[in-house]
Amino acid sequence: MRLGAVLDARAVRLEAGRYAIVDADGFDAIVEPRPPGWTQGALVRVEIVREALAERGVLKRARARPAPDQAPVAAPTLLDEVRASGLPVDIIAPGDDVFAEADDRDVREETLTGSVACDGGQLHIELTRAMTLIDIDGWVAAPQLAASAASAAAATIRRLGIAGSIGIDFPTVDRAARTAACAAFDARLPLPFERTAINGFGFMQVVRPRRRPSLPELLRDDTVGCAARLALDRALTAGIVGALRLVVAAPVARAIEVRPDWIARLERAVGGRVTLRGEASMPIWTSYAEQP
User: Fold this and answer.
1) 155: closest CA among 197, 185, 123?
2) Residue 3: CA count within 13 A, CB half-sphere
3) How, if at all, do strands 132-138 and 164-169 pair?
4) Residue 100 needs a FRET pair 20 to 30 A away by CA distance; which of 109, 133, 194, 233 works?
């Protein structure tokens, strides 16, 4: 049920005049409004227009639309999406640390901590049921902070894939500074989006189309799995050739142990046997690789 997939599903629930629930291989999506002519149990073809979204205490189903005239197609991969953008693409060998050179790990730290540096201050990202909130703290003059934070907030929203309703709490500044901050924000965030002006209390609301989970939402939904992937990547780029021992938090060790294919891929990359050691007292995001 990934964005852009066109697939055959079965209509498993019909609400008269309201919506339909379709199922494909145990995954379901909502089609709203309910298309005319659909019957219970019918095989239908749909396109996924929004992926499932997990919020605190509730899982929002994926959304789909009828696509009777389209051929079945798999959802585009990340590589497909990057190529479609027109950006140049290089395929790299396993173990090349070009992601670190491109500040990939900075993006991970931002996602993990919810804290993003800007010129003269810091952004703090919080997920709530209603919206994603971005709070701004700093140590420079308020007009300067508002402008730098506006630019950083727009770049962060794009970089972390934050969408839906977003609230940004700016420092209290005069009208001219609020106008300058809005211009700085607009210069960094591509359309489509809508926003309010920054009001006298320093609050701006931004709305972007929400078609898939943001990076912070993915992290919240699978914290241990994300920590496991990060630990494996650290081991891959630790510079150890041959056998290595990966030391991680105990829950992370258990998550890796149930995925022998992950260990096998790491063993092929480093050219030796990989063993795991889980430490009960180790923080979940901490890990290191060592020679056994």
Assistant:
1) 185
2) 14
3) parallel
4) 133
**Residue 62 · residue 23 · CB < 8 Å:** no
- At 105-122, the pLDDT tens digits run 677 778 878 899 999 999
Please, what CATH class does the domain formed by 1-91 belong to? mainly beta
Q: What values do phi and psi take at 24, rounded to 5? A: -140, 110
What does R_g of the chain's alpha carbons equal in angstroms?
A: 23
**Does position 70 have pLDDT exceeding 90, yes or no?**
yes
Residue 231 token pair: 């630990």
Residues 6+ apart with CB under 8 A from 5: 47, 48, 73, 74, 75
Tens of pLDDT, residues 160-193? 999 999 999 999 999 999 999 999 999 999 999 9
Reading the block at residue 62, the tokens are: 């994926």
DSSP at 71: P
Distance CA 248, CA 287 (A): 5
| The overall pTM is greater than 0.85 | no
Closest by CA position to 42, among listed 18, 69, 72, 66: 66
CB 226 within 8 A of CB 89: no
